[in-house]
Amino acid sequence: MSPLKIFLASFLVNNIVLMRYIGLCPFFGVSTRFSTSFGMGMAVIFVMTLATLVTYLLYHLFLLPLNLLFLRTAVFILVIASLVQLIEMFMKKSFRALYSAMGIYLPLITTNCAILACTFLVIDYKYSLLNALIFALGTSLGFTFVILLFSAIRERLEYAEISPAFKGYTIAFISAALVSLGFLGFAGLFGISL
Amino acid sequence: MKKLSRLSYLWNGIILENPILILMIGLCPTLATSLSARDGLGMGIAASFVIIGSNIIVSLVRRVVPENVRIPVFIIIISTFVTIVDYTLQAYFPELYRVLGVFVPLIVVNCIVLGRAEAFAYRHGVIDSFLDGLGKSLGFTLVIFLMGLIREFLAQGTFFGKSLGLSFLEKQGILFMLFPPGGFLLIGLLKALVNKYIKRE
């Protein structure tokens, strides 16, 4: 696949939230406000691309030559957790404005399965380093795009009259089903299958 | 008195504090791997093994693990169990492993596992932690299995891959249920039922 196709596939056709069902907890938890969604989205773009780069190099330079593949899960999650901690400390010191925008979302990202899933997927797909980074960028932009889109819907839903049993999460699920149905229409775009 | 309260862990996990339908955590595997009853049950058992195992080990080491480094220690314990599940499925159930795919290693970031270790097992004894883990995993497995059952029935008219003689569903199944929107819709409807009939005290 060409880099452009990889980008479009990860951004729209195989959107990580709506098509793959990954990263649903932050998606439903944070998308109640546009501003919080924006902070979360920015943090995901930043951490996902960086985490994919680091784990990809670690996997191909250490785990594969040393035949330590069974340590993959443990190493990846620990690397991501410490990377997030490092980024948080670095930002707090050097980039105050950026830190105040996405700072509180950084610790939450450690348990965001979208980050870990992305690092596993680029290895399962046997991508080159460049393609892996494009995939990570496309995936994280897709996450941000969908969470922003969805937060706009949920801000509107707050003022809608909904039957009590459907309030809160329930109507969010039903709305997600409709948005996801829309995204199903992207299947086959430029010959990219689901 | 003691026996009664211990049994309530099970009841709490399955109904009153059901991880998926009441606490709304661990949604990703629930929606992604409930395409058929067999897949749902497989994922449920795999996750249950990790939840119960990590609950027991965390409870055993709770006195020697300092408060400051508890989260990395939990993560190591959990990822050990996930690796065991990962390799066991690969060796003995290759077909199931292919279907579950990336969601097997992703059990490590399932909020239920870390949530129970932090909120319960780190502060309670081994037997209590085991029962709590058992209750929460039963609640999780039950919902994911139920969703798999419904989605498989509506889409293919089958039960565990066996024909039920409903030729109209087999020929013209509601394939929508197998696609991503179907999963969101089904869990929305289940949550609405829960909201209506089960009140949280």
TrEMBL record, chain A:
The keyword Membrane applies. It comes from candidate division WOR-3 bacterium. GO terms for biological process: electron transport chain. Keywords: Cell membrane, Electron transport, Membrane, Translocase, Transmembrane, Transmembrane helix, Transport. Belongs to the NqrDE/RnfAE family. It is found in: Cell membrane; Endomembrane system. GO terms for cellular component: endomembrane system; plasma membrane. This is Ion-translocating oxidoreductase complex subunit A. It is a multi-pass membrane protein.
TrEMBL record, chain B:
One of its GO terms (cellular component) is plasma membrane. Its main location: membrane. It comes from the Bacteria. Coiled coil: none annotated. The chain crosses the membrane at residues 9-35, 41-61, 73-93, 99-122, 134-154, 174-194. It is found in: Cell membrane; Endomembrane system. One of its GO terms (biological process) is electron transport chain. Pfam families: Rnf-Nqr. InterPro entries: NqrDE/RnfAE (IPR003667), RnfE (IPR010968). Keywords: Cell membrane, Electron transport, Membrane, Translocase, Transmembrane, Transmembrane helix, Transport. It is a multi-pass membrane protein. The keyword Translocase applies. Its EC number is 7.-.-.-. It is an enzyme of class 7 (translocase). The keyword Protein biosynthesis does not apply. Belongs to the NqrDE/RnfAE family. HAMAP family: RsxE_RnfE. Part of a membrane-bound complex that couples electron transfer with translocation of ions across the membrane. The complex is composed of six subunits: RnfA, RnfB, RnfC, RnfD, RnfE and RnfG. This is Ion-translocating oxidoreductase complex subunit E. It comes from candidate division WOR-3 bacterium. The gene is rnfE.
